[in-house]
Amino acid sequence: MPREVRERQMLDAAVAGFARHGYQAASMDDIAEEAGVSKPLVYLYLKSKEDLFTACIRRERAALVEAVRGGTGKAEGGAACAEQQLWKGLCAFFAHTAARPDGWSVLHRADTQGEPFAREIAAMRAEITELVTLLLSRAAVDAGCDEKFAEREVSGLAHAMVGAAESLAVWANARTEAVPSPKETAATLMNFCWTGLEQMIKGARWSPHR
Q1: What's the pLDDT tens digit per position in 97-123?
Q2: Please, which residues have CB within 8 angstroms of residue 76's CB and are 6 or more apart in sequence?
Q3: With contact defined as beta carbons under 8 Å apart, do 121 and 107 qualify?
Q4: How far apart are the C-alpha atoms of 32 and 185, rounded to whole Å?
């Protein structure tokens, strides 16, 4: 069997094991058995448990980012308006996390396992946040918003939106009844974030009652 195929089997088994048990409790013996290989072969290919977990994170991270970028049409050159690109990107994000719940579980929990795993997740989050920031900035400019708003607000809003998307993905994947579709979950986030953004672009601001 080609090395590429064998390694993919190992990573598939490892992602399932880490998602089920967490990094610390996952057993290399169980992962090797699930992959249908010997434990020494796993170590030969992937050196250590830490390297195996890192390889799982990187594979799942790359797949998720590719899905989101594919959904937005790679905003840098897409012809659709920023609002539609953001909507399609969110749909792609939730479709991917629903289709690969084990992979999403590994990514979502990885940054609680310390370095170097947290750095991998921070890099993934920064890449997606950069894309969302670009789309929100374009939306603000398209709406004729002043530059101060774009500078002051957009970056924070992008971080908030990415954090909310991650939380919603966990919520959606944990449901056993009335499970929302990826589009329904994306619509929940758009209703929450985009409606508020639209009002902010128009100059509306919340203020506490005195």
Answers
A1: 999 999 999 999 998 888 889 999 999
A2: 134
A3: yes
A4: 36
